[in-house]
Amino acid sequence: MTDRAPQDLIIGIDLGTTNSLVGVVDSGFPILLANAEGHRLIPSVVHYPNEGAPLVGAAASRMRAIAPGRTVASVKRLMGRRRDELAPEETEDLGYQVVAAPGGWAA
Questions:
Q1: Contact of 31 with 1, CB cutoff 8 Å
Q2: For residue range 43-102, what is the model confidence (pLDDT) as tens digits?
Q3: Is residue 19 left, alpha or beta, with left meaning phi > 0 and alpha meaning psi from -120 to 50?
Q4: Which of 46, 53, 93 is nearest to 70 (CA)?
Q5: What spatial distance separates the first Cα and last Cα of the chain, rounded to whole Å?
Q6: Domain segments of the chain: what residues?
Q7: 106 by DSSP, 3-state: which?
Q8: Alpha-carbon distance 69 to 64, whole Å?
Q9: In this structure, what DSSP letter does residue 107 have?
């Protein structure tokens, strides 16, 4: 990529239910960015360990079976929805608790 001032960069984020992508536009061409492991397609998962920084992507996805209560996935399905409008079958298999945040929004 060329050297540019930060305000000249165009960044796009595709937040998918299962996977996410991040890209930039360089000289008019879209470029997908890779993570530290070289992967461009990143699982849309975040794990919150008891200590330390959150894990994201594949590392977080591996924690779903070990610590489902601290691993958040499929969150896109809940975004912009109120907790009281979610049917039980929409949340029962997530592995983590969905609560009502201030204003009743799903969190």
A1: yes
A2: 999 999 999 999 999 999 999 999 999 999 999 999 999 999 999 999 999 999 999 999
A3: beta
A4: 46
A5: 38
A6: 80-107
A7: strand
A8: 8
A9: -
